[in-house]
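Long-time lurker. I teach an intro course on protein structure, and each term I like to show students one example going from raw sequence to a predicted 3D structure in token notation. This year I'd like something fresh instead of my usual example. Would anyone be willing to generate the tokens for the chain below so I can use it in lecture? Attribution to the forum is fine with me.
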Amino acid sequence: MNEIKFNTLPCVKVNGNFPVYQGWSSICGKILSDTTKIKKRTKVVVVDYYQGVLEEPTTNELIIGLVPSLVLNTLDLMWPEEKIAAMVFPYVTDDRIFGYMTRLTIDAFFDPVKVEKARKEIADSEGLVLVVGSGAAFIYTTPDILVYADMARWETQLRMRTHEVDNLGVRNRNTSDWMLLYKQGFFVDWRILDRWKKKIMHRWDYLLDTNNRNEPKLVAGKGILEGLNQAITRPFSLVPFFDPGPWGGQWMKHYCNLDKSQQNYAWCFNCVPEENSLLLKFGEVVVEIPSINLVFYKPKELMGAAVHGRFGDEFPIRFDFLDTIDGGNLSLQVHPLTEYIQEKFGMHYTQDESYYMLQAVEGAK
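-- Reply from a regular --
Happy to contribute to a lecture. Here you go:
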């Protein structure tokens, strides 16, 4: 097999002057610089987390860099874990695979008595107050600075596999079966956090990118939205994600310039906006965001009026590579009818498939 060029890190170059602050010292320095311009007794910085952000190390770095007089973590303001588990059970069920798309919203996770007490604490404080965690902007709705710590869905899943991420409102990362973390994320957490993200994304002062845990980056929210505005007017590619599997083959290793030491690659999720990332390049610095942000931000412009009218802000097509060459047999693909998927899973549409054969070896069937 001859190797060919396959761009695994496609970028959208953003025109405009949007500085990117790299490293915790620079990030916290910028936030502190902004707070010095605020002439108030109490200055509130809210950092709202998407699932997958490494909460403890991220929060610790913010505390070290910002030296706040008061820190409120949203996890401490939620209902007890037993109540949250009972609340989400109808959606996650006791089956390892089956679940139902939740209609819960972020407010359902919070104890109103704790929230009211936290808001009073903020009102009675002086100096810099830091509110962190998923739903932080719900706890304090009018912050002086709103930072959104976003996270690529595939990176979240990888962190679930290494037991670094909890489900929303609970501390369960060490469960023996990481697939249960993923399942609850799919049916519950991501639905809730996506609804919340859509409500506040126009208000972001900054976006915090910690997909690379060793290279955190901060960029103005206006820069992110401008990047999405520019992406919508031109062809662009998403960041492909490659994963092994039972049938995985060797073809993509050669044609996509992948790690030859890996056992196999079964999948390439090449354009699945709810899973893949979009890279925005500001000057020479690349910031990674979930590509679903573009679907949320301008669904009609991206998909057209007819598709938007049918599917709303969900992108209804996915593009994958499946590789079985020198691997195993592809699994049997079974997809429910529309009525069944709506009734049993709470999903709006089913999945039809078509295959384009790029290459086959002798004896393929």
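Some talking points for your students: The radius of gyration is 22 Å. The mean pLDDT is 94.
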